[in-house]
Specification:
Helix 18 (468-485) packs antiparallel against helix 19. 43% of the residues lie in helices and 28% in strands. The relative contact order is 0.05. It has a five-stranded antiparallel beta sheet with strand order 2-1-5-4-3, sandwiched between helices. The chain contains 20 helices and 22 strands. It starts with a helix and ends with a strand. The model is unreliable at 167-173 (pLDDT under 50). A hairpin with a 5-residue loop joins strand 9 and strand 10. By secondary structure, it is α+β, with helices and mostly antiparallel strands.
Amino acid sequence: MSAILAESESEEEALPQVLQAIARNKSWDLALAWVFDDEQINLYEWSEIDEDVSDYIDASRELALEQVDDLPAQVLGAKDIVWVPDLSTEASHSRHAISTQTGWCNAVAFPLQHGQKLLGVIELVRRDCEPLEEDLKGLLRILGRDIARFIESVRYEEELEKKNARLAQAQLIARMGVWEWRPSDDRLRTNDGTLMALGLPTSQTPRNCQAYLAFVPEPDRTRLQEALSSVQNLDVDEIELEHTFASQDGVRLLVLRAKARTDRHGRLKKIIGMVQDITERAALEQELRLTAAAVEQAAEAMVILDQQGNIVSVNPAFTRITGYNKEEVRGKSMSALLHWPTGKHDGSFFRALTGRLLMSGHWEGEVWAQRKNGEQFPELLSISVIRNAANQITHYVGVFNDISDQKDQEERLRRRALYDPLTALPNRFLLLDHLEKAIERASRRQLKLAVCFMDLDHFKPVNDTYGHETGDQLLKQIAVRLVRTLRKSDFVARLGGDEFVLVLEDIDGLAQVEGVAQKVVDALREPFALNDATVEIGCSIGIALYPDHAERAKTLLRYADEALYETKEAGRDGYRITRR
């Protein structure tokens, strides 16, 4: 998912890929995304199934999100994940009839939220009536934040490009005019540039100073009149001041410059000057001041680099995250200062980054960085190119966040999804993934592997006699003993209760597997010390070999499970090979 967002340059490019990745990874048939902007709601969709789902998508496109009974509207109201186990029971939903006709069973939706701002909703729908995994909720919240942050980022860059274009246009079109005033007869001469700056038609051209001053609101009129008088009286040689001007299209902000011209006797002949409309420039300057204030207050680290990648300026968040202040980093290479010392990125990584940056003007991805105190941390880095009017690169702007907490949360969610919380052994999902990959390796290398399905003998009496807490302690000790008994290359998983599965790779034949199985049986016969009690149990094992008995993971597990029950029927405390 991070790769899709890092490689995409717009939400139109990213959202269909994101929907496909989420749906396929989590076994959903249809994925929809409503994304809000200032003027409209954009709907993106992805469908896995072949059947026509256009009616459902069309209804979703026309969906009124203020309808409180519909799933997206519920998400917007709750600002959190909403799960519908059975769509056929939700008669109040506006798409109930279509979803029933199409055969959808359940759905889940989650918000795209960045801070307090809701940018949209993603809805996942499927035919199978599967329960919602609890761990999936945490993952969807993270995805919602990441996607929303991506949308905000690309929109900010688009808006920044628009503002830069407006600023460049204001620089090219100066809206400047010249004028000449003779105080002796109060005659004022202007050119077309002056009229453009003033926003007046030719019919309203001011012919004298008083006519010009009539367009200037108070208190600027009095201030301008006093300044012109000081030039007229030769108290000063020239003046420059800003004042407002009531033109046809509203009040403008002008800058006026005036300079006295005298004859050879030092007497005033005329006053010449320039007037420029700076309304737009002043607004842009105010906007830039606000932007600069926002940069100073931003939670993200922001850094400006020169053409060589050396640091020109940083904001306070950069200092807070890295520990370096402005004086320490100015003129230094950001990569050499933060990224090279981690030892996690080589020259090829930075060459690829630079190439992508020069080609597209933007790069975003995860990078390892090092603080001033030597502590390393993962950061989500975004770099953009700044070009001048000649399309030449002048600077780079980098924005990054310390994503340590996010990565820790992702790792916790991953472990909860793939590992047994009691024994820390892999669970059923990770077992199936590992077994399928092990079969691929064995096939390529023309080797055998064994699947050993195992459960404990006499485990229930331990729970009944000493309680479930003692039973849990026993399961933990069994997990440790299994790991110590097997080779490092072997794999052991807990399916739940007292069931375990062992996967033995790179085996020579059945004799080797029987030796390992007997070793496990012997190991679990040894007593276990639990609090004040010592208990003795055993285990029963069923074995199936690849490729002798089957070539598919689930088939091997089923045959091994059948052999396990044969072991139990034969008296337990031993192992059996499948008869298949």
